[in-house]
């Protein structure tokens, strides 16, 4: 028997907020999509047990929370390179990597309910899906993480959170306060403020300089203490002189690349297609600059080909 269309539509309406929630909990859009699919299946199997439509939101999020907590018991904490090591003291070709499941990965805006073309209709508070913020969440114990996300990102009350997690409101408030202390100790200064014309201008200039592969122009866009990282590579670089050296080192690989605009984590990004031996341009990495006060504080370059598919990007581009 097929799923009734009314039930199917209601379940699908939950998918974007559930994906954002699971992404915040798990730090990976790939794991988040799997968790949401598991949640939807479980909800469909027991849909008739919840007769009151008003109760379905908390019920769906309770299922998603249990799915995420089960997964987190079997996972190591995801992170960004800056959470794991100090910046390299000198430039060398990056070699050491960690498995994909070690890293926080970006999330396409459309999957988490962010609508840059109509911010009033977005489901997302931008600061709660920035990459640095999502990485900070991964430092919280799983139940604290759930409390913090539900309160800070979704605006749920302590009473609602307590009912969802099966704890008292006092326990929810206590967990929230501990989570806030932990997050407050995390360096979130690299995060962009609300996007504005200045930030878009910096992104455009980065785009143009990269396609020309004008290293002095690229380096000049960074703050003096600006930095860059390239998951799954462990190494990261800090300081404008070393940023410039790094771009010079990667010139043979990157020169001749083309960039396409993408929207991830409520901020602008650029998908790089680098020259390949077959004469085509092939996916390399998704650049996500964090811009502060008119300059780049950090550029994440996420090297993960599956991100291109999630973003609806082509498999290759012509070299010309």
Description:
By secondary structure, the chain is α+β, with helices and mostly antiparallel strands. It is built from 14 helices and seven strands. The protein folds into two domains: 142 residues, Up-down Bundle (Butyryl-CoA Dehydrogenase, subunit A, domain 3); 122 residues, Nuclear Transport Factor 2, Chain: A. Strands 1, 2, 3, 4, 5, 6 and 7 form a seven-stranded mixed beta sheet that branches. β1 and β2 form a beta hairpin.
Topology:
Blueprint lengths: L4 H22 L2 H17 L10 H17 L8 H4 L24 H4 L18 H7 L4 H12 L4 H8 L3 H16 L12 H16 L2 H6 L1 E8 L6 E3 L1 H10 L1 H4 L3 E7 L2 E9 L4 E13 L2 E8 L2 H6 L6 E2 L2
Parallel strand pairs: 1-6
Antiparallel strand pairs: 1-2, 3-4, 4-5, 5-6, 5-7
Helix pairs in contact: 1-2, 1-3, 2-3, 3-8, 7-9, 8-9
The CATH topology of the largest domain is given as Butyryl-CoA Dehydrogenase, subunit A, domain 3
Which runs of at least 5 residues are low in confidence (pLDDT < 50)?
A: none
Let me know the CATH homologous superfamily of the largest domain: PhyR, sigma-like (SL) domain
Cα radius of gyration in angstroms: 21 Å
Shape: globular
SSE-based structural type: alpha+beta
Number of discrete helical segments: 14
Q: How many domains make up the coordinates? A: 2
Query: Percent helix among the residues?
Result: 40-55%
> Architecture of the largest domain, according to CATH?
Up-down Bundle
Strand count, sense and closure of the main sheet?
A: 7 strands, mixed
Number of strands: 7
Average pLDDT value?
91
The level-1 CATH class of the largest domain: Mainly Alpha
